[in-house]
């Protein structure tokens, strides 16, 4: 079969000979065909992640942040989903042009994913040790005993107390935080180059959230992995990300290094989001609220999708889609890594 | 892997908020109830269209058999005895499906036999839905001892093999009319609906809107009939529709075994039973009632499946 | 008139700033209803919770059930709600905060303890008196997707309170009232014939709030009212709730896990852990001068959307998970995760009271905290 020849071209060695970013998404479009019409979930997204880097993708429900991740993982339901345009380069190769077999080999082994709901992601009738060991048995052909030993090792790695005693427990016997650790262990099992974490701590309590995020960041450093962190929580992002991409209605509206974004947002949507969260250390007056509702993907507003909710919107915003352009200092000085898709980014960042 | 659910949720996310900011959407979908949405879906489902046309004709035939044939199903003309092979080209004529052993038109008997099947199917379904639904609702809503008692009785009846039980019950009657068969099947059939209803009610009574109604001070009747029943109906309707086909085939089976309907009552089961003896010489006597029976059962199962798909909340 | 009688506060949980309960002994239902309908002055206690307990039995067996244990969801909680204030209750999942909400609404039957509303224990009321209480205490639910009946129109949902309490609005008046309510919560009154699934999460929550307001209640219990909503919509709903509080003179019990939002909306805050109140005080006392180690850990773990402010803050990362409420630790329930725990913590249950060392100090640390070794520590502001 030709598939075997093709797989040989997928770089196997860690680090590989590929230069440039680990993952690069270019002009990705995803749409869903529903009975009410075509929902345009992703409308031209570009981003890249390098080894050892954390990209946070921030957005609300319907922003397309999770759909983008599913397209990268190749777990989009098609139909109703469709990718009419775009490329997803992993180590320089376009994954959208690969055969199913090739993609399957990348999935789990080179790119792993962590989901929000750990309980439904684990099989309830198999022990966690079996599920962790399965990765090694299937992908590396280890014996049952060796796989179990590896499972204990992994559970130690993600700091599950008394790992060797708990390896034969079932998922429901673990707490939410511990289950999310098991999910992380599973994602790590084959030492992937890239981890996509979709709202990994949203279902967890605050005190446990901090533990899990710390663990994830620590492991990422240790393995020098790329990490895409998908979240709606501006607080979680602030802690761990290197750079942030803010999504709205299937587009990236702002991109920036993490400190910069919080200090000087260059898009009215980002600014609105930051202003609308109450602060822990001070009691303010009335909260700033972004007016209106998130857009309906069956019927995205013309021009800038944010225009009906934007305090700065003018006529041009209703007719022309703003491009994601580089943002500069007032004197024209470069701001590396900063981009904004707003016609009035100058006024927003310097105003 | 949770891929499927994840993506389903993502799609839902993606199309969920019909935002008020968009002034478009014309007035016609101003109020879109879940039933209305299901109906919109059904109208475009070919399975629904085919099955509902079939069921429409079946109902029409059983109500007005005279519209379809003028031949008597009971008067045999012995000159056709066994010689009356089907003349399929002559559609709709008295003898186009041939004649049976006593020279009666197979076509005419098919048409006149429909009524028995439809009566059994529809009546049994109505009775079991009412009885099963009521019991299931009471057991599911009140729980505790009530539930324990109802559930154990249901289990006992559920344990009785449907056909075997039907044979035993019918054996107790010497004069077996359609209504006796209806009684026998309903007597054994209510358990399925009880279980479905009970399950649905237990899920729904934990919904926040039920708590909200209680918090407003709503009484048991209001909660049951305004909040729980309308939401529990969907799975019950689906199961009942599919079960309807099953009751029709159960009637035929019992009649075939000689325990259900029997001549002079006209029914497909009776004809199948009569046709078996002549399977070597005159296959058509057996063939056409069997096809009719299968198509009818198929129609109701298809309808049930179509309704199930339309009501599936995962798609909305 | 009902006889007014004073009883001394039973010192099971020595909580000094919980005021004495003036109970009402209503001999007849009519007297009970009259007492419920009496107005309460601003700043007076309107709802007084005393030693509230809810244990869910764990049973085995199908027909003959045998109790093998109990989940101690709420295990002795006392607090007051004053007229016109917002009392925030925070805690992690499993701390019992949602069960408290259900108990206050009488949706669950309390295992022990009392909930006094205007001097009458609502856990013992029934019939007309309970119905009168229901009119005055309403609830807003967490999940806007399950809290509205999908088979009813918005008009029917918001109008249902009037069907149940016909005395509030005459029949011909109801449609207008429903439209008014839609307007009050910021929805287009023309949406009256639409169904819930035609709305987004934030709009549905507004519908839920409109239903809660319909009977013109005095108290609204909010159980995580914004946690299911998008960030940009959360602020809208919070602002709406604050506006309605002023407009209709409401008292809120605001239950949430998001500490920032609770601080924003609350006048006083109670912190719950494993079915017990760990610390309670004004928002400044709790957030700027916490004395219970759990509160400190909770506050320090909150991710702050400001990396600059973040760096100067101390973070306390707790080890382990919340123990099971079916088998809570002896003594202080927090001791298994507490860095200060000593032997005393395993044997003596700390009472919710102003710690001796702060008593009479007049400092903001002088508020109730259930810790043997209470100590002030600012974890919110950068060092």
UniProtKB/TrEMBL annotation, chain A:
What InterPro entries is this protein classified in? Answer: AAA+_ATPase, ABC_Ni/Peptide_Import, ABC_transporter-like_ATP-bd, ABC_transporter-like_CS, Oligopep_ABC_C, P-loop_NTPase
Q: Which residues form the ABC transporter domain?
A: 23-274
Membrane topology of this protein: Peripheral membrane protein
The primary site where this protein sits is membrane
> PROSITE patterns annotated for this entry?
ABC_TRANSPORTER_1, ABC_TRANSPORTER_2
**GO: which molecular function terms?**
ATP binding
Q: Which PANTHER family match?
A: DIPEPTIDE TRANSPORT ATP-BINDING PROTEIN DPPD, OLIGOPEPTIDE TRANSPORT ATP-BINDING PROTEIN APPD
Instruction: Name it.
Output: ABC transporter ATP-binding protein
User: From which organism does this entry originate?
Assistant: Streptomyces pyxinae
Automatic annotation (TrEMBL), chain B:
Give the transmembrane region(s).
47-68, 118-144, 156-173, 179-197, 228-248, 285-304
Q: Which domain of life is it from?
A: Bacteria
Which InterPro entries does the UniProt record give?
Answer: BP-dependent_transpt_permease, MetI-like, MetI-like_sf, OppC_N
Membrane-topology descriptor: Multi-pass membrane protein
* Gene3D superfamilies named in the record: MetI-like
Aminoacyl-tRNA synthetase among keywords = no
- Keywords in alphabetical order: Cell membrane, Membrane, Transmembrane, Transmembrane helix, Transport
Location in the cell: Cell membrane
**Residues covered by the ABC transmembrane type-1 domain:** 114-304
- Sorted alphabetically, which PANTHER family does this protein's record hold? ABC TRANSPORTER PERMEASE PROTEIN (PTHR43386:SF6), OLIGOPEPTIDE TRANSPORT SYSTEM PERMEASE PROTEIN APPC (PTHR43386)
Q: Which family does it belong to?
A: Belongs to the binding-protein-dependent transport system permease family.
Query: Which protein are we looking at?
Result: ABC transporter permease
UniProtKB/TrEMBL annotation, chain C:
UniProt keyword annotations, A-Z: ATP-binding, Nucleotide-binding, Transport
Q: Which Pfam families match?
A: ABC_tran, oligo_HPY
ABC transporter domain boundaries: 47-299
GO MF terms here are:
ATP binding
Q: Which domain of life is it from?
A: Bacteria
NCBIfam families in the cross-refs: oligo_HPY, PRK11308.1
What the entry lists under PANTHER family is as follows: D,D-DIPEPTIDE TRANSPORT ATP-BINDING PROTEIN DDPF-RELATED, TRANSPORT ATP-BINDING PROTEIN
Q: What is stated as this protein's family in its record?
A: Belongs to the ABC transporter superfamily.
Q: What is this protein called?
A: Dipeptide ABC transporter ATP-binding protein
């Amino acid at each position: 079969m030709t598939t075997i020849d093709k797989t040989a071209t997928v770089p196997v060695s860690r680090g590989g000979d590929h230069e440039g970013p680990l993952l690069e998404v270019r002009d990705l479009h995803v749409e869903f065909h529903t009975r009410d019409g075509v929902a345009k979930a992703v409308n031209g997204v570009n981003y890249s992640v390098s080894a050892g880097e954390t990209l946070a993708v921030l957005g609300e429900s319907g922003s397309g942040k999770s759909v983008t991740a599913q397209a990268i993982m190749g777990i989009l339901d098609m139909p109703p989903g469709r990718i009419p345009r775009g490329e997803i380069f992993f180590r320089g190769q376009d994954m959208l042009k690969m055969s199913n077999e090739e993609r399957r080999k990348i999935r789990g082994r080179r790119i792993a994913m962590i989901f929000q709901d750990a309980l439904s992601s684990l099989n309830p009738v198999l022990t966690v040790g079996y599920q962790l060991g399965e990765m090694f048995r299937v992908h590396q052909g280890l014996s049952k005993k060796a796989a179990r030993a590896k499972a204990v090792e992994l559970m130690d790695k993600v700091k599950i107390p008394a790992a060797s005693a708990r390896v034969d427990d079932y998922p429901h016997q673990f707490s939410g935080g511990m289950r999310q650790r098991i999910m992380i262990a599973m994602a790590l099992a084959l030492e992937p180059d890239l981890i996509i974490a979709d709202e990994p701590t949203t279902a967890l309590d605050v005190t446990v959230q901090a533990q899990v995020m710390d663990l994830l960041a620590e492991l990422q450093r240790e393995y020098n992995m790329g990490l895409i962190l998908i979240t709606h929580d501006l607080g979680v992002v602030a802690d761990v990300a290197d750079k942030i991409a803010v999504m709205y209605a299937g587009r990236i509206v702002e991109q920036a290094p993490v400190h910069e974004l919080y200090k000087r947002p260059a898009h009215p949507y980002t600014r609105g989001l930051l202003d609308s969260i109450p602060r822990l250390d001070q009691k303010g007056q009335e909260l700033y609220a972004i007016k209106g509702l998130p857009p309906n993907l069956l019927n995205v507003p013309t021009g800038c999708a944010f225009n009906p909710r934007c305090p700065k919107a003018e006529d041009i915003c209703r007719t022309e889609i703003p491009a994601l352009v580089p943002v500069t200092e007032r004197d024209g000085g470069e701001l590396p890594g900063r981009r904004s898709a707003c016609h009035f980014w100058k006024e927003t960042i310097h105003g | 892997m949770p891929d499927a659910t994840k993506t389903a949720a993502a799609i839902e996310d993606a199309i969920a908020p019909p935002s008020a900011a968009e002034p478009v959407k014309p007035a016609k979908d101003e109020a879109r109830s879940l039933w209305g949405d299901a109906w919109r879906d059904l109208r475009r489902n070919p399975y629904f269209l085919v099955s509902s046309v079939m069921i429409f004709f079946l109902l029409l035939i059983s109500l007005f058999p005279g519209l379809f044939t003028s031949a008597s199903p009971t008067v045999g003309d012995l000159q056709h005895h066994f010689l009356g092979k089907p003349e399929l080209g002559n559609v709709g004529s008295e003898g186009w499906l041939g004649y049976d052993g006593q020279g009666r038109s197979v076509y005419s008997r098919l048409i006149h036999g429909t009524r028995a099947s439809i009566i059994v199917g529809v009546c049994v379904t109505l009775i079991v839905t009412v009885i099963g639904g009521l019991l299931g609702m009471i057991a599911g809503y009140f729980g505790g001892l009530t539930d324990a008692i109802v559930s154990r009785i249901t289990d006992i009846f559920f344990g009785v093999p449907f056909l075997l039980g039907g044979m035993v019950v019918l054996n107790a009657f010497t004069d077996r009319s359609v209504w006796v068969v209806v009684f026998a099947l309903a007597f054994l059939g209510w358990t399925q609906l009880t279980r479905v209803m009970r399950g649905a009610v237990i899920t729904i009574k934990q919904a926040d809107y039920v708590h909200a109604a209680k918090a407003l001070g709503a009484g048991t009747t209001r909660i049951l009939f305004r909040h729980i029943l309308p939401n529990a109906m969907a799975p019950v309707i689906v199961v009942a529709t599919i079960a309807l086909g099953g009751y029709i085939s159960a009637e035929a089976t019992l009649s075939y075994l000689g325990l259900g309907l029997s001549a002079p009552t006209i029914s497909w089961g009776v004809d199948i039973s009569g046709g078996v003896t002549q399977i070597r010489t005159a296959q058509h006597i057996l063939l056409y009632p069997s096809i009719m029976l299968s198509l009818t059962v198929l129609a109701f199962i298809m309808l049930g499946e179509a309704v199930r798909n339309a009501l599936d909340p995962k798609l909305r | 008139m009902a006889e007014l009688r004073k009883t001394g506060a039973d010192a099971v949980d020595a909580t000094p700033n919980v005021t004495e309960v003036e109970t009402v002994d209503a001999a007849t239902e009519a007297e009970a209803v009259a007492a419920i309908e009496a107005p309460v002055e601003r700043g007076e206690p309107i709802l007084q919770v005393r030693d509230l307990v809810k244990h869910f039995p764990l049973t085995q067996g199908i027909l003959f059930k045998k109790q093998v244990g109990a989940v101690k969801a709420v295990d002795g909680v006392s607090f007051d709600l004053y007229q016109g204030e917002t009392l925030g209750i925070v805690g992690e999942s499993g701390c019992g905060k949602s069960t408290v909400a259900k108990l206050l609404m009488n949706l669950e039957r309390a295992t022990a303890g009392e909930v006094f509303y205007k001097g009458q224990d609502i856990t013992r009321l029934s019939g007309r008196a309970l119905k009168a209480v229901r009119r005055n205490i309403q609830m807003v639910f967490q999940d806007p997707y399950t809290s509205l009946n999908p088979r009813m129109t918005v008009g029917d949902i918001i109008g249902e309170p009037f069907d149940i309490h016909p005395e509030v609005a005459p029949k011909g008046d109801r449609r207008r009232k429903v439209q008014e309510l839609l307007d009050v919560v910021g929805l287009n009154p023309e949406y009256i014939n639409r169904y819930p699934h035609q709305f987004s999460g934030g709009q549905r929550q507004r519908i839920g709030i409109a239903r809660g307001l319909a009977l013109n209640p005095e108290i609204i219990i909010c159980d995580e009212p914004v946690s299911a909503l998008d960030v940009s919509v959360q602020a809208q709903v919070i602002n709406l709730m604050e506006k309605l509080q002023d407009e209709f003179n409401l008292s809120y019990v605001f239950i949430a896990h998001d500490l920032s939002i609770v601080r924003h909306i609350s006048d006083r805050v109670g912190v719950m852990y494993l079915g017990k109140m760990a610390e309670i005080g004004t928002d400044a006392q709790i957030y700027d001068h916490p004395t219970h180690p759990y509160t400190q850990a909770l506050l320090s773990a909150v991710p702050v959307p400001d990396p600059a402010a973040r760096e100067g803050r101390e973070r306390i990362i707790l080890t382990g998970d919340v123990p099971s409420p079916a088998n809570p630790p002896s003594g202080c329930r927090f001791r298994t995760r507490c860095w200060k725990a000593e032997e005393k913590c395993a044997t003596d249950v700390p009472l919710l009271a102003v710690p001796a060392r702060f008593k009479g100090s007049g400092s903001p640390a002088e508020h109730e905290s259930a810790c043997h070794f209470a100590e002030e520590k600012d974890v919110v502001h950068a060092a």
